[in-house]
Write a structure and sequence with these properties.
The protein is mainly alpha-helical. It has helices spanning about 1-20, 35-60, 75-95, 100-130, 135-140, 140-175, 180-185, 190-220. About 20% of the residues are buried. The model is unreliable at about 1-25 (pLDDT under 50).
């Protein structure tokens, strides 16, 4: 009887330790509420942008006399900036897995700076585009699509920025003592949220590349 009790206690203790120290606990939960919420959100965003893309093509077909939109060179520069920000947030993930405090904080900082540069570039691109268009083209529905679609992308990037800033703030505030650093890097929920933020950032990157290619291809097509 004592042997049975000892065996049960040992088994329970082992399970408890595994639950506490297993870093892959959250990775195994594919249907975690956070994952489901992000998946549904990204699906909704995708459908929204596809709808605006289809509306743009439909407007071009209905009004073939209107010249297609020519993208400002700033938008191509912004593409490189956004790609660099995706690389930086990947760097943050690698540093997190390696328990590298310095690289982790630097990677988050670089991601934030690149995101702000992208946002400033968007305003420059919009201003450059408006200066190239004549009054008649500005009055058309076609020109409004680029502003609307790029502004929507800007809004979704802006929505993710507070979470990125929060990660950086918590990292700078809590990761000062060895014990606090260990606790931070051992938190599976924090790792899950970092992975979700990374997925969201990569999604915005892919979405922006799609938008650039979409308008670029349309600029060479005549209806």
């Amino acid at each position: 009887m004592w042997l049975i009790i000892f065996t049960e206690n040992t088994t329970m203790k082992g399970k408890l330790q595994k639950k506490i120290h297993d870093p892959n606990e959250y990775h195994s939960l594919r249907f975690h509420p956070y994952n489901i919420a992000l998946t549904l959100g990204l699906f909704s965003i995708t459908m929204l942008f596809f709808a605006f893309s289809a509306a743009y093509v439909y407007t071009r077909v209905q009004f073939p006399e209107i010249a297609p939109i020519s993208l400002s060179p700033v938008f191509f520069f912004n593409t490189m900036v956004l790609l660099a920000s995706s690389w930086a947030i990947n760097w943050a993930n690698r540093a997190y897995l390696e328990d590298n405090t310095t690289d982790y904080q630097h990677a988050l900082k670089v991601t934030i700076v690149l995101t702000i540069i992208f946002m400033v570039g968007q305003f420059i691109g919009w201003n450059d585009l408006s200066s190239q268009l004549d009054s008649q083209f500005l009055a058309s529905n076609l020109s409004s699509y680029l502003y609307l679609i790029s502004a929507l992308h800007f809004a979704h990037l802006l929505a993710g920025l507070p979470f990125l800033l929060l990660f950086y703030y918590v990292a700078e505030k809590r990761m000062k003592e060895p014990v606090s650093v260990l606790v931070y890097f051992s938190d599976p929920e924090k790792q899950l949220k970092l992975n979700l933020l990374t997925t969201y950032w990569h999604y915005l990157d892919v979405l922006w590349i799609y938008l650039i290619l979409f308008f670029l291809v349309n600029s060479f097509i005549s209806f």
